[in-house]
Structures are given as structure tokens and as C-alpha cells.
Design a protein that fits this description.
Blueprint lengths: L3 H15 L4 E5 L2 E3 L2 E12 L3 E11 L5 H14 L7 E6 L3 H4 L5 H6 L6 E4 L1 H13 L6 H13 L2 H13 L18 H10 L1 H15 L2 H7 L8 H26 L9 H17 L1
Parallel strand pairs: 1-5, 5-6
Antiparallel strand pairs: 1-3, 2-3, 3-4
Helix pairs in contact: 5-11, 6-8, 7-9, 8-11, 9-10, 11-12
Length: 282
């Protein structure tokens, strides 16, 4: 039989642990010049405060191995008085370093707490679904968007020439947008902007002529010859993507909201699936 004092101590320890909410932990890595930075955050819920997200630390570490990341997470949590057995989930991007079957950050964390759940980045998955589906098209839409953007981004003269065409067709000038692969919400706005401004953009490149227009863009904007309908095909793709990508964009926007919870995730993904199926039917 355990001594009475020992039993009381265990009861006090159990009560103190009960007051510490379960929490999820999230980590990431980003480059700032030659410096590798790691934000570390925790998320938890209490009846009094609701859902809370807090940045626990923002540290520098040139070692990006799974062992180093796990060590930093465990150390930072312990320094903050947070017990590893209170971790409910681990969230990070979908890189194999974080979630592969063996020797990943997730698997190393499970050595301390076998009940931890994988909280993959669903917004990343949604973005990749749209991106890889777009790769099945006959035209590389990402390249088209960025080629158009880069042509004007570094030349005030070209922008002024383009603005004169906008004025001629009585349209309000809008600068083209760039698609950045690591900025998931940048694809649809960039495609939509190019589609909305198709007429003046096409007129501008045709006015340059074949000698002045970049070859990759001239092929897209030149007058149809020999039965090739590249210009019309691109315009159709832009119209299609302007509509469909909006569905993925809105879903990612909801997924990135600060107050979202796993309890709402099924409804979000089911809504996305339903909207895509409705478009297939129609």
C-alpha cells in the first residue's frame, strides 16, 4: 500500500494535469536570406476562452532534419511547462520530412505520445489538387500568367503603351498579377485578372508584331493560321479556370481562417466535392 502522502501528491498532480488543456502543435520552416527560421505555435480550446492560437517560439536552426525539429519541439514545450502527453495533434506542411512512415517528425513525436494525430495541411492539398489537375490541360496556364506578368513588371514604358490601349477600348487599366507557387491564394486572382483583361492584353502583343513580341507569347496571341486555334483555346481555358479555380480558392480561404476547427473540416471538404460534382454534371 502506498503511503498516504504519496497518494495525496499523485491526486494533486492529476488535478493539475487536468487543468492543462490538450493542445495541438504546429511547426514550419522558412528561409530569411541564409537564415533558417522555425515558427512554433500551439492551439487549444477552453470553455472560457474558446479556440486559442499562440506562437510559442520563433527560433533559428540551420539543421532541418526530422531529429532536429523534433528535439526543438520537445525542448520548447518542456521549457514552457507543457507536457508531451497533452499533445493532441501535430500540424505541418505535407513534406515527407514531417509525415513519412519512418523517421519523420510525426513518428518521433509519437514515441513520446502514441495518441498524437496527423493534422496535415488540407489547404495545401486543395491547392495541389487544382494545380495538378491544371497540368492536364494543353496549355501551361501558370507559365502563361507569369510570362504576361514579367513582360510588364520591369518596364514603365511597356505599361504606358498598354494603358493607351486600355484607354482606346474604354477599359479601366488593371495591372496583371503574378502567381507564386508558395502563395496558394495567388493562382485564381492571377488567372481571373488575365481573363478579365484579355482584349487589351491581346491587342497589345499583336501590335508589337512577331519581331518585337516574345516568341512564347506570340505563339499564344498571333492570328490563327493553318487551322490552329491557339488563341481561342487559351481564351476558353482562361474562362474555364476563372470559374473552377474560384471554388478551390474559396475553400482554401475558409481553411486558412484562424478560428476554424477540425470539427468543421468534413463539411468544408464535402462542400468542395459537391460543387465540383455539380460542375461536372452541368
Amino acid at each position: 500500500m502506498a503511503p498516504a502522502g504519496d497518494t495525496q501528491f499523485k491526486e494533486l498532480d492529476k488535478r493539475a494535469s487536468a487543468h492543462t488543456p490538450f493542445f495541438s502543435v504546429a511547426s514550419d520552416a522558412s528561409n530569411h536570406g541564409t537564415t533558417k527560421l522555425f515558427p512554433l505555435s500551439v492551439r487549444y480550446w477552453t470553455p472560457e476562452l474558446g479556440v486559442q492560437t499562440k506562437v510559442l517560439d520563433f527560433y533559428e536552426d540551420n539543421d532541418e532534419t526530422s531529429a532536429a525539429i523534433n528535439y526543438q519541439i520537445v525542448t520548447k514545450l518542456k521549457e514552457s511547462g507543457l507536457e508531451l502527453d497533452r499533445i493532441s495533434a501535430y500540424s505541418a506542411d505535407n513534406a515527407s520530412l514531417n509525415y513519412r512512415r519512418y523517421n519523420s517528425v510525426f513518428q518521433k513525436l509519437k514515441e513520446n505520445n502514441n495518441y498524437i494525430l496527423k493534422a496535415n495541411c488540407v489547404a495545401h492539398i486543395v491547392h495541389n489538387s487544382a494545380k495538378y489537375a491544371g497540368d492536364r490541360l494543353n496549355i501551361d496556364i501558370e507559365n502563361v500568367v507569369n510570362k504576361n506578368f514579367s513582360h510588364f513588371s520591369s518596364s514603365a514604358k511597356r505599361i504606358e503603351e498598354l494603358k493607351s490601349i486600355y484607354a482606346f477600348v474604354e477599359m479601366e487599366y488593371q495591372s496583371l498579377l503574378r502567381y507564386v507557387p508558395t502563395r496558394w491564394l495567388s493562382l485564381w486572382p492571377a488567372v481571373k485578372r488575365l481573363y478579365d483583361n484579355w482584349a487589351p492584353i491581346k491587342s497589345y502583343f499583336l501590335s508589337l508584331g512577331e519581331e518585337q513580341c516574345p516568341k512564347s507569347l506570340w505563339r499564344l496571341f498571333k492570328d490563327d493560321q493553318d487551322g490552329e486555334c491557339i488563341t481561342l483555346e487559351l481564351q476558353v481555358y482562361l474562362a474555364f479556370l476563372s470559374n473552377v479555380l474560384k471554388v478551390f480558392h474559396n475553400t482554401a480561404l475558409v481553411l486558412e481562417q484562424e478560428d476554424g476547427t477540425v470539427c468543421e473540416l468534413y463539411d468544408m471538404m464535402f462542400t468542395l466535392k459537391t460543387k465540383l460534382q455539380q460542375r461536372q454534371i452541368s
